[in-house]
Amino acid sequence: MPSADQAMPSENKSEAETESVPHVQYHISAVPREMSGLKTDLDLQQYSFINQMCYEKALHWYAKYFPYLVLIHTLIFMVCSNFWFKFPGSSSKIEHFISILGKCFDSPWTTRALSEVSGENPEEKDHKKSATARSSIAVSPGEGSLVKTPSLRSIPEKIVVDKPTASALDKKEGEQAKALFEKVKKFRLHVEEGDILYIMYVRQTVFKVLKFLLIIAYNSMLVIKVQNRVRCHVEIQDMTGYTHFECNHTMAHLFSKLSYCYLCLVAVYGLTSLYTSYWLFYRSLKEYSFEYVRQETGISDIPDVKNDFAFMLHMIDQYDPLYSKRFAVFLSEVSENKLKQLNLNHEWTAEKLRQRLQISANNRLELQLFMLSGLPDTIFELTELQSLKLEIINNVTIPASVSQLQDLQELSLYQCSLKLHTTATSFLKENLKVLRVKFDDSRELPNWTYGLRNLEELYLTGTLSPDASKNIVLESLRELKCLKTLSLKSNLTKIPQSVVDVSSHLQRLYIYNDGTKLVMLNNLKKMTNLTELELVRCDLERIPHAIFSLANLQELDLKENNLQSIEEIISFQHLRKLTCLKLWHNSIMYIPEHIKKLGSLEHLYLSHNKIEILPSHLFLCNKLRYLDLSNNDIRFIPPEVGVLQSLQYFSVTSNKIENLPDELFFCKKLKTVKLGKNSLSVLSPKISYLVQLTYLELRGNHFEVLPPELGCCRALKRCGLIVEDTLFETLPSDIRDQMKAE
Asked: Quick check: 214 and 224 in contact, CB under 8 A?
């Protein structure tokens, strides 16, 4: 600290002093050579007192407190520079960002993605770029050499090490990379909402600039106050005989030099703060573009970011742009999709997929995949695959490697959003025979569907028109030259023109209308080659007349409509090939006698109606092999039922029948008889005539015993006899054992 080690009396004394102390000289008098100087009467204690008085009263405050000022200003600068790293609203974001940044930088997927997407060896580039990033302390723009910022010093000190690029990530690395993608997404959503980091940094930078200007201003004016000699006036004449002294400030020379040095350092720091201010206010730091990364890496879908997320990326670029480049990999959907694909391939190996193969209802070797994040490439190693069923798999592309599945004939897409590679499109055009598509909106219907020229069966399920009062929005099927089967499960108001385009070669048409009324069916007349027609839940009140023009029709299904009268059935006599008629789940109350005209009929479904009386004319259809009259109000079965010598299936379940005619048991080809839920109390012993019987349902009646003649039905086993256990026990034990035997 400054001090006055010597206090010398001034040469100007008062007259009183001259008179009282006549022997004191006011100038340096001649003395012997060995001694010289001014003699005073002050002792050591008086000099010490004068020294302290000069320090307290005469020495300038700047010279006294200069070291403290330097310390205080330095602490203020340090606090100001690091405040945003400690403030709760910003510190957590910075720490989270640094943590994620380090993981993204070190992730094996980063190098793998850069090499796969851009086709370059990023390891060499990264090694070159990181050669300048070997310091563990980062200086933010605006942080001068005076204060080392602890910001970004949490960035890993690791430099990119030369590591061989793995041909494939292991499962653990893949899961870690997947977790990183999720973290980056959530972090981006959170940070882009606000700009507190940017505001805090701007405020502290402005404060530092103002502080710098203040220090330069007052230090420049006061640095000259640091002097070696200090003049001091002390009112202690009676004690010393003098009033004016000159004190020696022994630290003045050192403090003067240090103050100039301090001003230079503050000037350097202030210039960096001014540059930071320019950087903040003349550059758009709340928006960050990855344009250069997109151009350099070839990853074209990296999104630009804003607010605090953009600001932190600008900051990290001041440290090393390499970090932003590697971080950008985890903002790309292309990169994420490639990672998902790699993880899928790890999870769904060819062997695992081969174990899931099964035989479909169409006798094809089928693979079904449900709710996957993508399509495993290993599927295309199953060269024996014939049917591929995909459910709820979105935003994937069927690659060119699908051409390896030479046996693939059937493709099912249930609520899937798929695109086809050009080569895959060509392959499916030539090989695909069956396509099933289930969608929620007609816009989800893939456009490549209309170009499958070898397609034979097309099944479409979904809303094809947003308004039932408008016509269906469906592109032309004219290119489907081989289409034989078309199924539409939708809400049509009329048969669309696109269906008429294929009417010349269409053989099977299925329309499931979900209760929407189908009108204007005249287009059916053009479909002369139809062999099967299903109009289900179309709110039909009468049988459409256009159907009677379909001379090749073999099967007609009018299930779940609003049919009450079927007098038009007489017109079916012109359909010589009609063998199957399904009028079930309607409101039909009676069967007209014209039904006898249907001499070629083999299958008749009249279940779930309101029929009370069976006309004897019904049984003149002597070719009937399948007759279903269940769930009606029938009380009596005419004995003419015995005419049906070809009958194999007969069901009157859930009716009100009290007795069975013996003539029923003359139908010796019967294999299935369903009599459950009626009012029967006796089963005729003539049941023994039905030697081919394999299924007999009796449950829900009033039987007390079963006739032992059931033992003559050798083909009937216990599993085919649907009856209460107590009633089964009424049979003789040998017959029971016979039925239980395999």
From this structure: no
Alpha-carbon span 257 to 265, nearest angstrom? 13
Question: In one letter, which amino acid is 305?
Answer: V
Least confident of 96-110, 152-166, 182-196, 484-498: 152-166
CB < 8 Å & 24+ apart, contacts of 72-80? 73/211, 73/215, 73/266, 74/146, 74/147, 76/211, 77/146, 77/147, 77/208, 77/211, 77/269, 78/147, 80/204, 80/207, 80/208, 80/211
Residue 241's pLDDT is: 59
What contacts 167, CB < 8 A, 6 or more positions away?
A: none
DSSP conformation class of 398: E
CA distances from 553 to 67, 471, 506, 525, 581 (A): 109, 27, 12, 11, 10
Region 503-520: mean pLDDT is 91
Chain mean pLDDT for the chain: 80
Distance CA 619, CA 639 (A): 9
Instruction: Tell me the sheet residues that pair with 663.
Output: none
- In whole angstroms, what is the distance from residue 735 CA to residue 534 CA? 45
Q: What is the DSSP letter of 412?
A: E
User: Judging by DSSP bridges, how do beta strands 4-9 and 244-249 pair with one another?
Assistant: antiparallel
Three-state DSSP at 597 gives helix
What is the Cα–Cα distance from 578 to 555, expressed in whole angstroms?
6
Asked if residues 159 and 147 have their Cβ atoms less than 8 Å apart, the reply is no
> pLDDT by residue (tens digit) across 299-351?
777 878 888 778 888 888 888 888 888 777 777 777 777 777 788 888 888 99
- For 589-639, write each residue's pLDDT tens digit: 999 988 988 989 999 999 999 999 999 999 999 999 999 999 999 999 999
Cα separation of 633 and 631, whole Å? 7
DSSP string, 321-350: HHHHHHHHGGG-HHHHHHHHHHHHHHHS-H
d(CA 489, CA 616) in angstroms, rounded, equals: 38
CA distance 226 to 255: 7
Residues whose CB is less than 8 angstroms from the CB of residue 683 and which lie 6 or more positions away in sequence, other chains included: 660, 698, 703, 706, 707
Q: Model-level pTM greater than 0.90?
A: no
What is the CA 556 to chain-centroid distance, rounded? 45
Neighbouring-strand partners of residue 673 = 650, 696
Q: Is the Cβ–Cβ distance between 296 and 118 less than 8 Å?
A: yes
